Amino acid sequence: MMEQRDLLLGHMEDLAEKAIKTGCAASRFITPAEAQSVTAYFTRKHDVTLSFDGGYEGAERTRAVFLNPDWGECERAELFTALKIEHRPQDTLEHRDILGALMALGIERDTVGDIIMDESFAALVCLPELGGYIAENLTKAGRVGIVLSEISLDELPVKQEELTIQTDTVASLRLDTVLCAAFGLSRTKAAELIAAGRVNLDHQPCLQPSKELSEGALLSIRGLGRAKLLEADEVSRKGRLFVRIGLYGR
Q1: Model-level pTM?
Q2: In 36, 75, 117, 162, which residue has its Cα 20 to 30 A from 18's Cα atom?
Q3: If you ran DSSP here, which 8-state letter would residue 75 be given?
Q4: Does residue 34 contact residue 8 with C-beta atoms inside 8 Å?
Q5: pLDDT by residue (tens digit) across 135-162?
Q6: Structural contact between residues 171 and 206, judged by C-beta atoms closer than 8 angstroms
Q7: Rounded Cα distance, 234 and 220, in Å
Q8: pLDDT tens digits, 61-106
Q9: 204-205 and 218-221 as β-strands: parallel, antiparallel, unpaired?
Q10: Domains of the chain, with CATH numbers?
């Protein structure tokens, strides 16, 4: 794990140096956890600016973009290609079908950003140099025939968080306590999941049951789902905290 992080940060150092010389340099697509590691590492480096962009607002997978402030800006259209995915109305297409079909073509995961799926629209974002190849060769996903065509980045939808809101009271904002409220777990079960490394806090593994959370914290339990601590700003007469928690995909 540590070796992978070192390789990632070493590559980012190379990109930062390239940006100083050429004006702009961008990584392939990285995960939210990787983006956090890169952000923490480059916090005190001021010779280049660092931003993360996935081609549209709310993207989960993004490219780390390094910019020499003296050179201007990177053109977004040069960093991404967006492909719309169309299929027959009677067919059902899922995210895993598209991802599996891409992998079957030999496409590496970090060359493709988000795969956007909803009831009326499907698209993917990729590196510009792969757009033509994917559009020409990705003709089937699972058992569903598909047709891909390039669209402008402006045509991609803004990603909306679909959350089921629930309220509860907790004794504190400890990680294990909030997990119990969010997922209906016992304190013992929450502790077991944390100890087993199945719990992430803000996209990073967390093994500390007593870790204090703040509003906006993202929680996930591998195999159970994801949640966000939305609010924790009121106290009951018995000293308990009222919390609002958003659950994803429920």
Answers
A1: 0.74
A2: 36
A3: -
A4: yes
A5: 999 999 999 999 999 999 999 987 766 7
A6: no
A7: 24
A8: 999 999 998 887 788 889 999 999 999 988 888 889 999 999 999 9
A9: unpaired
A10: 2-74 (3.30.1370.160), 81-155 (3.30.70.330), 163-248 (3.10.290.10)
